[in-house]
Amino acid sequence: MNFGVLLGFVFSFAITAYAILTSADDRAVFLDEHGIVIVIGGTITVALLCFPFKQLFTSFKVFLRNMFFKQKVDYEKTIKMIVSLSESYRTDPKNLAAKLPPKAHPLLKDGVALLVDFGFNYEKLDDILSNSVKGQKIRNNENAKVWQTVSRFPPAFGLLGATVGMIALLQTIGSEGAQDRIGPAMATALVATFYGLVLANFFLIPISEKLTEVGKEDIILRSIIHEGILLIHQKEHPLFIEEYLKSFLSPAIKKKMTSSQGNYSGGQKAA
Fold it and tell me: Most CB atoms closer than 10 Å: which of 1, 101, 104, 177?
């Protein structure tokens, strides 16, 4: 479980609760059902109008998986696994699949199958793996786009709730005791705006940004696997493969990675 994300949501709820508990003498004003229904109900309704239910459900599942259950991307482990496979392919190509660990990345498993079982040449391997990476990038962007779009709705519906509240308030002006009701009525009208801003800025926007970042990491990993499979096919030297695949990473990540240069300097020569 991603405890950083969980902690972020806990803090979001805590800050919202703190704002409610310390900003008004009558905290019941924040329980205005009209504002809650307009903001949450309106957001859900417009989301259903914008996207098919199946896409919304898929995006919600992706959110749960990536935000809470997805493990951190381990570039170093994947690169070293590809390097190990390249060594095996140079000596015993037919048993390459047996060298794959059970929890290897699905694209790496597919790439090894295409390389060994089907025997595709370099161009066909490149085409298939490129399309796989491109397709996944599109799906990642679509899932993030759903949350980016939905995050725009709550503030607008919060304003709508405030507008409705102000209309109801203005209707009472001129009636007996209207002056005493103006303050409480305006506070109630602005509750919808409060919930719209909280929902968008504490939850929906961070979710969309997190999914965008997770999607970028996923595509970098898939690109590494894509190029790694092609380099294995070319029977490039393991050290070259390792250094080439590291070039996909930022300097900060590369600095943390341990080099395997000593493992190849003993008896192997570059192909």
Answer: 104
